Amino acid sequence: MFYHEKTAFPEDFLWGASTSAYQVEGAAAEDGKGLSVQDLHHPAETSDFSVASDHYHRFLEDVALMKEMGLKAYRFSFSWSRIFPEGKGKINQEGLNFYHKLVDALCAAGIRPIATLYHFDLPLALDENGGWSNRETIDAFEAYAALLFQEFQNQIKDWLTINEQNVMILHPSAMNPRGVPSQKELYQQNHHMFLASARAIQRLRTIDPEAHIGAAPNIIAVYPKTCAPEDSIAADNWETLRNWLYIDMYAHGRYNSLAWEYLKDHGWQPEIQEGDMELLREARPDFMGVNYYATATVSAPKNDGHDRQPRNGDQQVMVGEEGVYRAEENECLPSTEFGWKIDPVGLRTTLRRLYAHAHMPLLITENGMGARDLLEDDGHVHDSYRIDYYAKHLKQAALAIQDGVELMGYCPWSFMDLVSTHQGYQKRYGFVYINRDEKDLKDMKRIPKDSFYWYRDVIQTNGESLIQSK
Ligand code: BG6
C-alpha cells in the first residue's frame, strides 16, 4: 500500500524499552530470593545469571539513564521467585521492597512501568513439583499475580501475563534446562499457561478495573519460498502453529481449528476440564504485546525424513517439521552476525496480520539487534548498525499505523546490555553498554551507546525526525 501523505506517531505513543528480571538483575540468591529454573544455567563459555547486569544494586543509576533518554515507558519483569521463594506460600518482603523502590523511581522519573509477570523464570520449587504440567501451578500464578496487582495498583496500569509462551512450547530446551517434556505434555502445559493467563486477567478486573493487561507472544510473518501453492499452505501451517494457536486463544478464547486438528492427529490434544473453555472465553486481554525479531521462510514438507534439520536451539531459527513445513533460506534478506534475518518490512506484515487476527491494540514489547558491540578506545560504542536497524523498523511500524493498525508503542530489546539467552554478553542488545565480559565483571560501568542518543532524539520529536528522513 502506498500513501500520498506520511502519517505521524500518535501523541500518546509509548516510546519505551524492555528488559527481563533474570537477564539484568543478578542478586540471584540475595535477600531471600528463591531459585528459578534459569538459575540452573551454568554455561562453561558464557555468563550465568548470578550477577548479570547488577541491576538489582544499580537500578537507581539505570532509571536515571532512562530519564535522560526520555523514555515514556519501561517494560520489565518481576522475578516470581524473588517474591515467592517457593513459588507460592510465604512472601519474601525484601523482594517486594526491591520492586517498590524500582517502581517508585520510575514513577518519580515520569516513566510508565509496563510489568511482565513471568518471563521464562519459573520458580524452581514449582518446577520440581511438575511445573506447568501440574494444575497447581495455575493457582500459584494466580496468587502471585493477585498479590502484585494489589501491591502496585496505584502505580502500574499496564501488565503483561506471560512472555513468549509460544517460544517456551516450541523451543523448550532453550528455555528450561531441566529437560524436554514430550509433545503431549508440552501442549498440556500450554493449556495450563492459557488458563493461568486467563485467571490473572480475571483477578485484575476485580482488583483494578482501570488497569490494562495483555500477553507477549513472539509473532512473525511466514513467507512461502516460491509461488507454488504447496509452499503457501506450508507457510500457513507454520504461521498457524507458531502464531495463531496462541493469538486465537488469548484474543478469542478458542483453539484455532487447524491447530486443533494437528494436535488431534498427533494425539497431543490437551485434557480440558469442565469450566476451562468458559474461563478462556470470558477472560479477554485489553491489548496484545508482540515480540518481533525476524520473519521465517518455508517450503512444502517433502516428508522424506529430512524436513526437520538439526540446527542450534535459537528461538528465531526454524527447524522444520515433517508434514508441516521445511525451513528455507531467504536470500532477499541480510542477517545479523548471529544469523537472525533483518526484515523491517516483515514487521509491517506481521503487525498487519496480527492485528487482523487479534482485533485489539498492539504493543511492540520486543524488537532489536544482537551484536558484538565494541567499547572503542575513545570510550564510546559506535553502534550505527543498530541505529540503522531501529530506524528501518520504526519506519515500517509507522506504515503499519497508516495501514490501520492500532499501535500503542514501541519497547525495543533492550534498554541495557543483558545476558542473552544463548550467547551471554557476546551478543549485546542494549542502548546502554555494561562494562563487563562473560566472566570478568570489570567495573560494570554504564556507558550510553550512540543508539542511546539517537533514540533520545526520536523520542523528543515523537518520531518526526525519523518519518521525515529518507
Ligand atoms: C526473546 C526473549 O525471545 O528474545 C528475550 O523474550 C531474549 O528474553 C530475546 O533475550 C533475544 O534473544 P537472545 O537469545 O538473543 O537473548
Order of helices and strands: EHHEHHEHHEHHHEEHHHEEEHEHEEEHH
Number of E-state strands: 13
Radius of gyration, in angstroms, nearest whole number: 21 Å
The named CATH superfamily? Glycosidases
**Share of residues in helices:** 25-40%
Mean pLDDT: 95
CATH topology: TIM Barrel
Largest sheet: 8 strands, parallel
List ligands, each type once.
6-O-phosphono-beta-D-glucopyranose
Q: What proportion strand?
A: 5-15%
**Widest beta sheet: strand line-up:** 5-4-3-2-1-11-10-7
Structure description:
This protein has 470 residues and is of the alpha/beta class. It has an eight-stranded parallel beta sheet with strand order 5-4-3-2-1-11-10-7. Strands 6-8-9 form a three-stranded mixed beta sheet, covered by helices on one side. A two-stranded antiparallel ribbon has the order 12-13. The longest helix is centred in the middle third of the chain and has 25 residues, at 183-207. The mean pLDDT is 95. β10 (362-366), α14 and β11 form a beta-alpha-beta unit. It has a single domain (14-468), classed as TIM Barrel, CATH 3.20.20.80. It has helices at residues 21-24, 55-69, 80-83, 93-108, 124-128, 136-151, 165-170, 172-175, 183-207, 229-252, 257-266, 276-282, 344-358, 384-402, 450-460, 464-468, and strands at residues 14-18, 73-77, 112-118, 158-163, 212-216, 222-224, 288-291, 296-299, 326-328, 362-366, 407-410, 432-434, 446-448. It is globular, with a radius of gyration of 21 Å. It is built from 16 helices and 13 strands. Helix content is 40%, strand content 12%. The structure holds 6-O-phosphono-beta-D-glucopyranose. Residues 20, 23, 163-164, 167, 218, 291, 315, 366, 370, 413, 420-422, 427 line the site of 6-O-phosphono-beta-D-glucopyranose.
